[in-house]
Write a structure and sequence with these properties.
The complex is a heterodimer.
Chain A: H1 2-26, E1 30-32, E2 38-40, H2 45-69, H3 73-87, E3 93-95, E4 101-103
Antiparallel strand pairs in A: 1-2, 3-4
Chain B: H1 2-23, H2 27-55
The chains are: A mainly alpha, B mainly alpha.
Chain lengths: ~100, ~60
């Protein structure tokens, strides 16, 4: 029973974050960075909270991949950043090498 | 006789030493190896990342 509750809570909280991340990206509050993490384009406390939660989970996964493929976290982050920016739909923000945000 | 052997050995060693040094700096092979490893790692990392994008859609 406790198991079920935990799984349910995890799934619900994940889908709640999902909505927030996608909304924030569509509203131009959050963008993709070259280091494979999201950054805050503009916004307050709630946007920061979403970004840091997503980044914490992403970093965990990136570390797993680095371990699995026998490379460094930096290599995984660089590849992830490039792929994320390629996958970003037009209208949303990506960060350039000099740190400026650009609408794709 | 012993002196002759000693002289022969020192000549032998002296003759051999430069050869070892010539073999060591062989850079092109190292560079090619690095490129190959980098490419393989890139392919493996990309494959794992694509998997991650599908499995954890809420994070991307």
């Amino acid at each position: 029973m406790r198991w079920l509750a935990m799984i349910l809570a995890a799934t619900l909280s994940l889908s709640a974050w999902a909505l927030d991340l996608q909304q924030a990206k569509r509203q131009g509050l959050i963008g993709e960075q070259l280091n494979g993490l999201v950054g805050v384009v503009q916004g307050g406390g709630q946007v920061n909270a979403v970004a840091s939660d997503i980044n914490r989970k992403r970093l965990e996964s990136y570390r797993d991949i680095a371990r699995k493929t026998g490379t460094s976290l930096a290599v995984v982050q660089a590849r992830a950043g490039q792929l994320n920016i390629e996958r970003t739909p037009s209208g949303q923000y990506v960060q350039l090498a000099d740190g400026r945000w650009q609408r794709k | 006789m012993r002196v002759a052997i000693l002289v022969f050995w020192s000549l032998w060693l002296a003759a051999c030493t430069p050869r070892v040094e010539v073999v060591v700096p062989d850079k092109p092979i190292t560079v090619n190896l690095n490129v190959k490893v980098d490419h393989e790692i890139r392919v493996r990392v990309d494959r794992e990342l694509e998997k991650l994008f599908e499995q954890e859609q809420e994070l991307f």
